Every structure is written in C-alpha cells, then in structure tokens.
Amino acid sequence: MSVKAYDVNSDYVLVAWKPPNTVNEAPITGYFVDRCEAGTDSWVQCNPAPVKVCKFPVSGLGVGHSYYFRVRAVNSAGISRPSRKSSKVTAIDAAESQRLQGTDEGVPSAPGKIVATRNTKSSVFVQWEAPQHLKNLLGYYIDGRVVGAKEWFPCNHKPFRHNRFVVHGLIPGESYVFRVQAVNIFGLSEESQESSPIAVEPALATPSAPYGITMLSCDGSSMTLAWKKPKHSGGSKVNAYYIDKRDADTLVWKEVNLAAVTERICTVDNLTEGTFYEFRIQAANLAGVGLPSAPSMPLKCEAWTMEEPGPAYDLGFREVRGQSLVILWKAPVYTGASAVTGYFVDMAKKGSSEFVTLNGDPVSHRYLQVTGLEEGSSYVFRVRAVNSEGVGKTSELSEPVCAKALPGTTEIVAGVDEETGDVFLSFEACEICETSKFEWSKNYKPIGDCPRATITAKGRTSRLTFTNPDKDDLGRYSVVVTDTDGVSSSYTLTEDALNTMLELSYAIRHPVVPLKHNLNYEILEKGHVRFWLQAVKLSPSVSYRFIVNDKAVTSGEGQKISHDVASGVIQMTVDHFTRANEGTYTVQINDGKAKTQSSLVLVGDAFKAALKEAEFQRKEHIRKQGPHFSEYLDFTVTEDCTVMLTCKVANVKKDTAFHWYKEDDEIVPETAPNVMSGSCALPLPLFSRKDQGVYKAVLSDDKGKDTSVFDISGKVFDDIINAIARNAGASASELVMQCTPEGIRLQCYMNYYTEEMKTVWKHKESKIASSEKMRIGGTAEMAWMQICDPSDKEKGHYAIEISDGVTTHTRTFDLSGQAYTDAYEEYLRLKAAAFAEKNRGRVVGGLPDVVTIMEEKSLSLTCTVWGEPTPEVTWFKNEQEVASNEHTRVTFDGGKFASLVINKVTTDDSGKYSINVRNKYGGEFVEITVSVYRHGEPIPEPKLGQPRTAAAAAAAPQAQPVPPKSPAPAKTPTPSKPQTPAQSAKSPTPAPSPGTKSPTPPRSVKSPTPPRFMKSPTPPRK
C-alpha cells in the first residue's frame, strides 16, 4: 500500500493510500491508520474502528512536529502487517509550508524508463531515468515481482539516492519484472512503468581459460589431448575450443584447428617424433573467445608401447550430498595390449597425499557411488584402468569436491499420472538457467531418443515417462541439469516398486467404482430381506441394475430398488422372502468411465439360514403385536449369591397374566409378578443341583400369549455356579482355625457356599482329596476342612482355591510353629473332655419327675444308669442321703438298675428325692418330687407344672410310676449336711472355663456339624 499525506495543516493531515493486491484472501473490510512521531519508535493507532475508504483525516497533531504514517488492512482472518511507512510529514500551517517550500511543493513525478539486465546467477542490475520534476528528491523505492505472480515485494527499505540498483537474493533461473517510485518529503510518486521480464542469470562474458591439459595417447606422429572445462563459463554455454601448439624450445604459437572443437578431447596430428611440444587452449561462448590457458607441460611425442592401459579422463561428479556422491569418468583412449576390464578409484582428502582405494575389486562400469563421507569436507579422486596385463596410468586428479548438498536439493520422485496412468520419474531442479537442459541416464548411460521412454521438461521440472514399462526398465536412473553447479539426482527402480506402480496404472487406465462394502444381505424387522452394497463415491449420473439368476429385476410389487448418492448405498428390498428367492444376486454399476459389479451367491446352507432368519423375524413381528418378552429369560447373581431368573416384558396391560413354571409345575413366588414394571424376576436362593430343570415364564392376555423357556442344566448350570463362585470368592474371608475333639478344622466364611462350586484345598501346594484323615465339607455359610487326629505331618501351609472359570480366589493359613502347637494342645484338651463326657456316670431313663401316691401304698423308684467304669449310686431325700432299711430299701443290680422302694408310705415320706450317679469322669443328679395324700383326699395337682404324674391305686399293694419320655431339667443339689460328701454334688471333671479360648478364636458362626458327645460334663435333663 502506498501511503501518502495530503492537506497538511498545523493540527491535522489527510492520509490516503492504495488498497493492497489480493489473490485468494478474504475481502478487506477496513483499515487502521497508525502514526509515529519522528525520532521515536512508538506507533499510535489513530482510528478506534476500521475505516472502509482509503483515506482518513488524522487530527490532534502537534504544531511543528514531524510524523510518519502507516496503514494496516483488516479482513475476516484478522489484521495484516503494517504497510511501509510514509514520508515524514511536518504539521505546519499551509501558508507557512508554502513560504518554506517555495515553488517546489508536491510529490515528484514518476521515474522514467526502467531497464533490468543480467548481473549474476542470483541478482539483477536495475537502472532507470530520473523523474522530470525532482522537487527535493530524497531517493527511490524499487519493487520486484515474479513473472506470473500478483504480489510485489520491496527490494529496498530506505530511499536509494542513485538511479541504478542491484537486486540480490533472487531465485536462479526465475524471471522477474521491476518498477520504481520516487520519494520526497511530500510522499511517493506514481509507480514507473514495469521493466521487461528478465531471467536471473549471470551476465554474459567470455569464459575463463581451460586448464589441466593431459595427454591420453601418442603414436609417434600425433597426440590425443584432453582438458578440463573453464571454471567460469561467462554466463553462456561454452560451445567451442581452440588449440595452439609450439615446440618447447620456441616462443611462436601455431593454431592447431581453425574449426572449433566442441568436445574437450582432440587429436593433434603432424607432429615430429621425439620432439617436445607445449599446448594452450581457449574456450568460446556467445560473448566471444576467452583468454588462452597457461601452456601445458612439455609433452614428448613418443609412441606408447606399454601393455597396461592409459589414463582415464574427464572425471566428474553427480548427486553430491552430505555423506555421498557419484564419480564418473571416461575410458582411456589408449587401452594397451588388451581391452580394459575394470577400474580402481582412489580418494584422499583435499591437501592430503594419502589415497585410499575405494573398491577392493575392479568395477567394470565407469561410475562409482562413494559413501561414508564427512559432510563439509573436500575430497580429490583419481582413477586407474585395469586390463589383463595390469593396472595402467593414474588419471589426473579430479577437482576438489565438497561433500555438501546444494541448497534446496530435491530427489527424483516415482509416480503414476492420475489422468493417463503413465508411470513416470519426475525431478524438480533447485537451480536452472535459460540454457539448462535435463539429461537423463540409465545406469549412467545417456537415454537420448529411446522408444521405451519419453522425456519432457517444463520450467524447473523434467519428467521421464515410460512407454510400456516392464522388467527391462529396471535399473538406476539419474538426471543432470546442465549449466548449473551440479544439480543432479538418481533413483533405483526396483521390481517391487514397478509392480506397485503398474497396479496403480492399471487401476487408473481401467477405472472401477470403488466399493466400501460388496453386495451383502440383511434380514429386516418384518422378515423383509435387504440386498445392498456401498460405494466409496457415486455421482448423480450413476446407473445400475440388479440381476437375479441371470434375469434383470426392477422395482415393483414385492421388491423395491433404490440408491442414495450421498452415502453411496444401492439396495433392493424383498418383502416376502421364500424358497423361490434362492440363487445368485448381482449388481452392475456404471458411473462415468468407471464400472464395477458385485455378486452374492445365496444357495444351500447359506440360503437356508437366511430363509430361517426371515421366517423367524416374520413370526417375531407377529408375536410383538401382543404381550411379549422384549428380553427372554436369563439369570443374574446378586451380591448375596441369590440366583435371579429375570426377563423383560413389553406391550402389556394391567390384566396381563404372568406365571412361572418348573418342569410344567407352577411356581407361586412370595411376591406376585408386576408386569407393568416392565420386568419380572424369580429368586432361587441357596442355589444348588436341586434347582436344575426347565423353567418357563408364560405371558398372556386377550391380545396373545408368549412363552420364554430357560433350561438350567449343562453349560447354563455351570455358568450360574461360576457366577456364584465369582461373588462368593470375592467375599471369602481368610482361613480361620477351629479346634474340635476330632482334630483341627480350617474354615473359610463367604456369602454362600455349595459343593457344586469348584473349590480345591491344598497342603504345601499339593491337592487334598477328602478322606478319613482329611474330611472336606461345608455349609451355606462356609467351606471347611477337618484334619482328624493331627500329627506333625499335617503341619504346613494350607490354602483353598475358589475358581469361577476366569479368576481363582485363594485364601491361606499357615499351620506351623506356635500356631500348630497351641492348636494341638487345644485339640488334646477337647478330646479328653469329650472322652470324659462320653464315659461319665448318668441316668439313662426310668424316673418320673413327680410322683403322687396314696398313703399305705408302696412306692418303687427304679431307673437305668450307665457309666464306664461302673458308677456309684446314692439316693437323697431332701438333700439327705437315704439309708437302706425295712421301710426304705435301696438296691443296685448288675451295675445297671438302681432302685429305691418305700414300703407303706406315709405323709412323712413326702418330699424331694434325688439320685446321684457318678464315677471318676463325672456324674449326674436327677430329682423326683413325691407327694403322699390320705384316703378320701383328692389327688393333688402336680407341682412345678410337670407334664406327667404317677399315682398309685388304693387297692394295689405298691405303685410303679411310668417315667416320662424326656426327663425334666433339675438343678444340681447342694448338700447342707457334713455327712454328705462334697464331691458327690458335682462332676469330678469340671467344664471348661468360659474365658478359655481356642488358639484361633472362632467366629460367631458355630460349626455346622458338632459331635454329639460335645456336651457339658453335667448337663441338666430336659
């Protein structure tokens, strides 16, 4: 944007500018104007909101102060970078400005004719005519533009006072145009006219002198010479060489050739054998003939007769990169006694005389790729030819070459043309000039005009296109851009790469409609069958047809054909799928030049499966018209391991009936099913093998009926057990120990246990099988293992493993050391207590709780006792021992039967009688209440609410009471007289103290199978 100031006054300035050039940017919506006071770097925005026109009055200026102005454009993407600042403007009154400026007021006129000429390969020399009206000219601004582009770029950022300028930093080979503006204190002039387009190339000059003159062969009358090209070509291709000669002992040069020599090799004839000659060479281009080279060393004209080959020559380099390069050379002119069979290449760093041979065996071709170079280092090379006689002369040293890639270097790219399908190699040069050419080679042999490939070039890019590529085209391809600083690249075409490109080429030349999904089918809700495929992309002009069993079908009754361009789907829906629909389905698609087809064979088992599914979906549609199961019966296991049979129902109403059945027997759950909730469940608590069977849920009302069947057996039963084991295993406690009279028991508490769960007990990593020694069992609350009669062999690490089919839950207990010692002692104590309980003295039966008898009758109290050893028997009346006499007779027969007979009872015989049966392991006290009533008195009611009463008949000589089935509880008597032994009142083996605990404290849940003999040593009777 060219920013200028108009109507300069003491307090305001009118700033105007040109809109910027835009290409693809969004439209400009406004501008911001900034000012900066001269002598500072602080820019201040003048307008708070963007102005839409290209001028703006800036006010608030200081009288006599000088300012610069700049403009920023605004669009939807944001604010642009600032423009170039305007010329300095001083805020003074217009009359004062006219007085100070005199008649030179205003901007200068536009500069005159502008001419651009070649300078170097990256710069251009621009000159122009000065404006007709200078008006205190401060200088010029030069702008440049690439030919074909729209945007101008500034070449200088400060006014340049001269009318000639060198523009640097241009792209070699690119074409540019230029324009110039003059500037004074009032602003910028109009732009000059554009210059003519000019390519960026060095200025034309004569080439520098050739050098490195070498003799390649001599036959005694002629010499073959070679030389190196000039280091500077003069901006134009060297197209001719001229050779002069002289005898080494004279100063007069003679022309060898009047006609130009175009190659850097020449044979000089008519020489005198044995004479020494000197040679010099001049190069020529469009600008003329350059200076002659320095004279060569004196060369003797003497015939070569050695058997080894002469020197190779014309060493050059291609594809110079940071770590590699390719060196090429030409074959010796003199081959020696036999043909050249190979070459050795030597290398040394620049300035070093230590050469290294790069190839252990001679190479038969005249190029070698050198790798392993140090980036930035310079190297020199030499080549030695080999024949059957030996190694020949060494070539001249090459020019030093630096292992560094040219800036912007690119490589050859292989590809396939998207329009034609041609396989090609493409190269874009980073540097080029007007005379440059792209020279392609295969295995470093020029391709030239070849029927197998065509070469095209456009601008900086060249393409080698294969006519009909096959295996004969495999190899290493290289390209060199002439008249540049060695722009080159190579590409090795392999068989795999060629096959990949040929496949892509075939696809482009024979286009197909790409498919995301081939022809397939799906069964819809009502039993309709949809045949469909999906293309990656379809155009609105696509055409297609369905073919079924070799007959084209169209939309009509029973089937509908359609497509959707956006999704690429083509489909056909068959409303009623029957056995007649078995066969082959094909879709043929044509979309522009592309075409494709996809087929689906639906016969045999595949068709039967589709037909079965279609019929099922039709039935499902009908089923769902009434009450139905939206989810059939299945099972879940709750956290407390209750198995729930669940289902979901739909399309139900309040009067819809729901019933559960097992093996056709109805199950009536405690809570009636609520179909309106949408789901029903049947709990199966404490699930085990007994719950196997076929369960059925039936849903019915006036709209229809539906049934769901669930067979709990086989795998389903195993799955349920595994689900229970998963919850139970997660809730399982660590193993705890419980001592019993039989041994030591390890217990694992969990939410629920059933023997169907996969549980394994292990001792020292060995599986335990249930036996008399190791008993395995469980209850609903826990699993246990009983170690009967433990010994030291049972010490060690125990574990229980609960498997749910996926995870194994393991709980452990270490039964060794002090834990085993304490447990074993507790086991011995409990075993002794159980033995004592089993063998203590006791009353087995025969005594009543209450006896009522009439006086003058005889009373006989007889019972059976037991104990090992035989117990002692003592009778008491009112806690006083009863002595045997005529009135009261005490007998004990056979160690089993104890009797107390009272003859002719009187009221004095009423009272509380008891019997104490005991031996060394303990005993038992049993009490009997005797009531005697007189003749004529009513039989008294039994005391203490006893269930049974024995009464003696008045006429009978004695009464024998009938004992009750279950003895009533009685307290242990406490004797009050000294003649009764204290030990008779209680068992000699006391019960364990409540405070004494097992080594491993038991949980609140008791053992499920306690031994019968585990009782208190002196329990009360019931």
TrEMBL record:
Q: Which residues form the Fibronectin type-III domain?
A: 1-93, 110-203, 206-308, 311-408
Instruction: Give the compositionally biased regions (Pro residues).
Output: 960-978
* UniProt keyword annotation of Translocase present: no
- Pfam families from the UniProt entry: fn3, I-set
**CDD domains noted in UniProt:** FN3
Q: Which SUPFAM superfamilies match?
A: Fibronectin type III (SSF49265), Immunoglobulin (SSF48726)
Q: Where is the Ig-like domain?
A: 627-713, 848-931
Keywords in alphabetical order: Immunoglobulin domain, Repeat
Enumerate composition-biased segments (Low complexity): 946-959
Cross-referenced InterPro entries: FN3_dom, FN3_sf, Ig-like_dom, Ig-like_dom_sf, Ig-like_fold, Ig_I-set, Ig_sub, Ig_sub2
Matching Gene3D superfamilies, A to Z? Immunoglobulins (2.60.40.10)
Instruction: Provide the residue span(s) of the region labelled Disordered.
Output: 939-1022
Q: Which protein are we looking at?
A: Myomesin 2a
Species assigned in the record: Poecilia formosa (Amazon molly)
Recite the lineage of the species: Eukaryota, Metazoa, Chordata, Craniata, Vertebrata
